[in-house]
C-alpha cells in the first residue's frame, strides 16, 4: 500500500485523511472513494478504486486504533515510524497534521460503534421504467421500478446498491415504509 500512497498527491491524501476522521467522528456517513478516485485520475495520476479503498481502510484502521488507545500525535508518529518505515514522508506529515488538528474529535462511544458496524443509509433514488421489448419477447410493456440505495459500509466506503421491483413488489415496499414512518412517529 505504501507504493500506492506514494502516487497520491499530498492534497488528495490530506482530503482522504480528513474525510476518514470526519467519518470516524460521525460527522459524515462515509468516505466517497469513487468520487475522490475520479478526481485523482482526472489530475493525471494512475490509481484504481480498489487501491484507494484499501488505503482508506488502512487509514481508517490506523486512526480508529489510535483513538481507541488515546495516542498523542507524537506517539502515533513514533509508532508509525517504527512499524512502517516504507511510508512516504509526505504521508507521515499529513497524518501528523490531521491527527494533531482533528484526532481528538473521534470518540468511541458504545452506541456509535454499534451503529457503525451495521453501515449507514445515505440516500435513495428511484425511477419508473417500462420494458418495451427484448430479444426473446417482442412486446413486453412491463412496468418496473428501479431503486438505487446509497449506503456507507462499516469501514466508511460509500457504495450504490441497485435493484428492480415489479409494481406489486414496489407497492409492498412502499407500504412497509409507511408502516415504519407511522411507528417512528409514535417514538
Automatic annotation (TrEMBL):
Gene: Commd6
InterPro entries noted in UniProt: COMM, COMMD4/6/7/8
A molecular function GO annotation: NF-kappaB binding
The protein's role, per its UniProt record: Scaffold protein in the commander complex that is essential for endosomal recycling of transmembrane cargos; the commander complex is composed of the CCC subcomplex and the retriever subcomplex. May modulate activity of cullin-RING E3 ubiquitin ligase (CRL) complexes. Down-regulates activation of NF-kappa-B. Inhibits TNF-induced NFKB1 activation.
Source organism: Mionectes macconnelli
Signal peptide location: none
Domain COMM positions: 120-187
Transmembrane segments: none
Alphabetized PANTHER family for the sequence: COMM DOMAIN-CONTAINING PROTEIN 4-8 FAMILY MEMBER, COMM DOMAIN-CONTAINING PROTEIN 6
Similarity field: Belongs to the COMM domain-containing protein 6 family.
Name this protein carries in UniProt: COMM domain-containing protein 6
